[in-house]
Structures are given as structure tokens and as C-alpha cells.
């Protein structure tokens, strides 16, 4: 490998990246990483104000960025997100399915409404968004999809069965997408974070957070920024021979 090839490994210059749930937490950290790597970034979330604030923040970092209000549970919003992205930047190279609904109910008390809401945002939304983006991903020379899942899909998850089951299903879709889209030059991988210091995490009781931390070898929460490296690997040319994989970034919390 020569210097020019090495320098291109994580270079995202000229590529357009969509990050759902991109206005805070892990999503915003990923969006910042892509901007710093040279990409044009589209952040999507439900709140218009948050979208514009995040996009303005990314532009303040020197990047080209827009925010597109999008509810992953509303199918019509998905086509609008893709159309707005392509209209603004001329294409779509990387899709990061990060938006999630953390609804949690114990088995025996699960409501139809909760199950439906989780399905709509955590599974149906990401799958249908990939389908909306597919024609543009096929036209990209560097196409990649990253589905953000969770270590909850690998471990016992009492009280979190709704969320964990949807993430497990998204992992299954990740593998099927990788197999079906390989011929189109589209790589599809997943990233499974462990406990991360985000708004979603901080809504848990302290004893729950402490339990998650004690279950890791590193005995701490991750920062959202610690998800950026693995995400960049899976969606840049550095991971050009990786598809159908799930990388756990969990502080050593999940037995392999």
C-alpha cells in the first residue's frame, strides 16, 4: 500500500451520508465524524428545530449539512428524506439507520400499541428507508448501509424484550441485505453499542445504569464519540471487504 491509498481509507470527501436520529447522542457524534472526514451530511429526526440546530452545528464545523425532519414510523417521510437528500447533494452513498424507539415493557404487560410503535420505528422504518435509498445506493461507487443495533440482541434482556427483539430482527435483515445487495456493490453491516452515556441511557434509574456498567469489563459507560471509529470502519473504504457483519462496541460486556 502506498501513502495515497492509505490516506484514502477513511476519507469520505464527496460522499453523501444520511444519519437518522442524527441530532443528539450517538447519531450526532457519527454525523460530526462524517463531516470531519469530508462527507456531506443529512441529519434526520422528528423535531424540525433539532434538525436545523444540528445541521447548523455541523456547518459550523466546516461541513456541508442539512436537517430533514423525519419520523421513521411514518412511511411517507422516508421517501421525502431520500428525495430531499438527492435534491440537495445529487446522490446518496451511505445510510446510517440510527434512530430508535426505546420503549420497554415487561413480558406479561406488553401492549399492542407499544409493540406496534417499536416495530414501526425500530424495524419497519429502517428496512423501508433502505428500500427507498436503494436506487441511489446502486448508483454509488462507495455504497454502504450501517444499521445501529444493540448488544441487547445478544444477551438476556429482561424488561427490554420489545427493543431487543426488534434489534435482533434488524441484525437478521442486515445479513439478508448484505447477501442480496452484494451484487450491486452495496455493503451492509451493523454496529451493536453497549451502554453509552446518552439521553436515552440517562432516563434509566441509577441502579439500572450501574448494573449495565458492572456488566462490562471496562467498568464504565462509553461516550458517544467512541462509536465513531467503528462506524467509520464499516462505512468507509477502510472496510471495503466487510459486509454482513455486526461489530460489538460494548466495553467487553458481551461474551462471544
TrEMBL record:
<keyword id="KW-0472">Membrane</keyword>
<keyword id="KW-0812">Transmembrane</keyword>
<dbReference type="GO" id="GO:0016491">
    <property type="term" value="F:oxidoreductase activity"/>
</dbReference>
<feature type="transmembrane region" description="Helical">
    <location>
        <begin position="144"/>
        <end position="166"/>
    </location>
</feature>
<dbReference type="Pfam" id="PF13561">
    <property type="entry name" value="adh_short_C2"/>
</dbReference>
<keyword id="KW-0560">Oxidoreductase</keyword>
<comment type="similarity">
    <text>Belongs to the short-chain dehydrogenases/reductases (SDR) family.</text>
</comment>
<keyword id="KW-1133">Transmembrane helix</keyword>
<protein>
    <submittedName>
        <fullName>Oxidoreductase</fullName>
    </submittedName>
</protein>
<dbReference type="InterPro" id="IPR036291">
    <property type="entry name" value="NAD(P)-bd_dom_sf"/>
</dbReference>
<dbReference type="InterPro" id="IPR002347">
    <property type="entry name" value="SDR_fam"/>
</dbReference>
